[in-house]
Amino acid sequence: MPEHLNRNSISALLDDPEGVPGGLDHLAECEDCAHEYEQMSRMRMALSGLPDLDPPPDEWSRVQAELGFEPLGRGLLAPVWRKASSWPLQAAAVVALFAAGLMVGQSIATDDAAAPGIPRAADNAGSDDRTGTQNGMLDVEPTDAYLRTVADLEALRDLDLGANSLRADPEGMAERITHLDAMIEASSEALREAPADPVLNNFLFQLVDEREKVAGQLVQTLRMTAAEY
Amino acid sequence: MSDARLIAAARAGDRRAMAALYSAHCGRVYSVVRRMVGDDHLAEDVSQDAWVRAFQKLHLFRGESSFGTWMHRLAVNAALNRLRRQSKRPDVESTAEINSPPPATDETVLNQRLLGQALDRLSAGYRQVLVLHDVEGLTHEEIASRMGIAVGTSKSQLHKARARMRDLLAPARARNEAGNHA
User: Fold this and answer.
1) Mean pLDDT over residues A195-205, rounded?
2) Three-class secondary structure of residue A76 per DSSP
3) Tens of pLDDT along B107-142?
4) What residues of chain B lie within 8 A of the CB of A219, using their CB?
5) What's the rounded Cα separation, in Å, for the pair A48 and B36?
6) pLDDT tens figures, A31-40
7) Fewest 10 Å CB contacts: which of A22, A184, A213, B10?
């Protein structure tokens, strides 16, 4: 029997059975080389079947940071407020401040107004029982500050809705979605402080509906643009 | 939503579309990068760079291939570029050619963890070609083009890499064999 095939030749045979003169004939006769061929073939198959690895859990955050995006969620408002003074972002900031004003204003207003047996915001001062605070908020008289904040909020929202027709191009719609996202995020943040507030809830629903509408328009526009090509 | 729609939205600045594209392809990107560079920390850096570059250059994506293919190419190039910059470092892994006859007996210990460990121990040159060919399925022509080497060099490196992998896996096979007999 001729000498054994070296591993390079066996590897070459895996990719090109005709690539090594006499190689296949040798494999048919030599048990050791045939065994090595089999093992190397299995290794190649195992390599081709390796599953995907999980990327580091913070990779997307780092990518966003590199791209200069502000992280969504906590910390969104302050940097956005500094960077831009456009009214949708101002609205987002107003929403974030809304809850604080609401809490303070309503706490003052409820001192004498709450019905017996119904928990009041003031009752829960220093307590982590948010449910009691929420219930208390349902039975309060709005303060002037609260009404002014709501009015400001609605005015800003109307400005935002009115501007929609001005920017029908994809970039404008995408920009608007970004603004709406900011407001949704801020509203959600505010609702964590005042979950039962009907004005905030209504405001959030309107924002979400509006975002859906704009996103649908964007998809439609992109589809039409694609069809033109 | 299809990649095409996501790309259009991402180009328009929709961060959720970007996140969706990332989510759909991050595993494959990280995998090829990690296996090519053979190091966790370096892989994190290179994979992140690849994604940043992808979103910065998304306007250059023409749709001639799928986004996944485009992104994969970008990731491979990012890994190769980083490894080239580090090529002055000495290869710690032996590159001696294995010409001895194959052992008479063998045990197939090819589980994924062992394969991953063996890949990490390969020299960078062997590892790159082996990963690109046997794991990622590139042809020698594609590998030669990407790495700036001759097709024959790619083939030669691959065969040596496979042989070296067999050597690196041998102790594990032996331990497994001993365990089975115990």
Assistant:
1) 69
2) coil
3) 444 578 889 989 999 999 999 999 999 999 999 999
4) 5, 9
5) 14
6) 999 999 999 9
7) A22
A205 touching B (Cβ < 8 Å):
no
Q: Which of A3, A175, A219 sits opposite B5 (nearest CB)?
A: A219
- pLDDT computed for residue A197 by the predictor: 66
Which of the pair, A82 or B148, is modelled with greater confidence? B148
Residue B75, H or E segment:
helix B67-85
Cβ partners under 8 Å of residue A182, min gap 6: A76, A77, A80, A88, A89, A92
Query: Given CB atoms, is A219 within the 8 Å cutoff of chain B?
Result: yes
Q: Give start and end residues of each alpha helix (H) in chain A.
A: 7-15, 23-29, 31-48, 59-66, 77-83, 87-110, 130-137, 144-163, 170-193, 198-228
Q: Does the beta-carbon distance from A7 to B31 stay under 8 Å?
A: no
A104-136 per-position pLDDT tens digit = 445 444 444 433 333 333 333 333 333 333 333
Reported ipTM exceeds the 0.90 cut: no
Q: Could you tell me if B122 and B165 are in contact, meaning their C-beta atoms sit under 8 angstroms apart?
A: yes
Q: Which residue has the tokens 């995006």?
A: A69
Contact A92, A156 (CB under 8 A): no
- A166 touches B at CB < 8 Å: no
